[in-house]
Amino acid sequence: MKRLGLIFFLLLLICTSCQKKKGDWFTVEKLDNKTYRIRENQSSQGNSSYLIIGDKEALLFDSGSGENKTGDIKLLVDSLAGEPVTLLHSHFHFDHIGNSKAFPDVALPNLPDLQDRLGEDSCIHIREQESLIPQTCILKIRTQYPINTEFNLGNRKISIYHTPGHSPWSFTIVDKRGKYLFVGDLAYKGLLLVNDLDEYQNSLSQLIQTCDSSYQILAAHGNEDLLYSDLDKIRLALKAFQNKRPAPKKEINLLGNRKKMYVIDGIPFIYDKTVNY
Fold first, then answer.
1. Fewer CB within 10 Å: C terminus or N terminus of the chain?
2. Cα–Cα dist 207/84, whole Å
3. Where does the Metallo-beta-lactamase domain lie (predicted)?
């Protein structure tokens, strides 16, 4: 009887553990001692956010979809960081600005057009056409980061580049010492959303010139990292589309709207200049 009781207890413990793991919203992947990928595999968009830690401060690149009913990303990030955390968004779509209210320190790149939108209360209002959902979002900005120049998180220098094309306010983080390129939604394995063909190609060209094949390219979606060569593959596909304007592969439903999907050299994408993807 004692043995049966012990077996029952162990089975109960295993089942409880499995249920808890299944219910966990966030999955943490350690890239190195100071860099973490936080996945939301259960989210509708399959998001990944990134925690970049220095000796004096840490930066969270995106705050997730906001769909989580279990799991507190702020609590998780604080437990990993060990330093004060600043939130920076790769862009303002709904699946990247969720959970933003949990972070008291939100940053904005020091881009003149964005700075002009800051009110006297240091808030920026994210409109529906920017978030892609029928509601606005207000971000209280406490920190401003420079563009196109390195700044120090404490024994860790990073740079922020303005890389539009997916959306007008898309940004990429470059860590030259760590050999990381955090590209947000500009590039990933999957269906790309293109707002501006010229800007998209220019942004990819800028990153191609900035890094090399030794960099790990980390996207905000998908379970497979990109290769350096994929950046130019995407650029060339968009250039070929711009030159030839082929017929769409098919139409698909995207956020409740029918959109034309194109596939060129294995790169699937939707191009719609009327939507600020």
1. N
2. 29
3. 46-221
Average pLDDT over residues 73-87: 96
Domain extent for 68: 22-271
Amino acid at 103: F
Residue 234 lies in a domain: yes
Instruction: Give the whole-angstrom CA distance, residue 209 versus residue 204.
Output: 9
Confidence of residue 256 (pLDDT cuts 50, 70, 90): confident
Which among 241, 157, 238, 175 is positioned nearest to 204, based on CA atoms? 238
**What single letter denotes the amino acid at residue 75?**
L
Is 153 a member of any domain? Answer: yes
Give the angle 204-33-28 at the CA atoms, nearest 5°: 75
In a domain, 7, yes or no: no
**Based on the structure, what is the number of domains in the chain?**
1
Output the domain CATH number for residue 100.
3.60.15.10
The reply to whether 14 falls in a domain is: no
Residue 276 makes CB contacts below 8 A (sequence gap 6+) with 129, 130, 132, 167, 168, 195
The answer to whether 93 and 185 have CB atoms below 8 angstroms apart is yes
Q: Which pLDDT tens digit goes with each residue over 183-204? A: 999 999 999 999 999 999 999 9
**Burial environment of residue 173 by CB neighbours within 10 A (0 to 12, 13 to 18, 19 or more):** buried
How many Å from the N-terminal Cα to the C-terminal Cα in the chain? 63
Percent share of the chain, pLDDT over 90: 82
Secondary structure letter of residue 273 according to DSSP: T
**This model's pTM is above 0.85:** yes
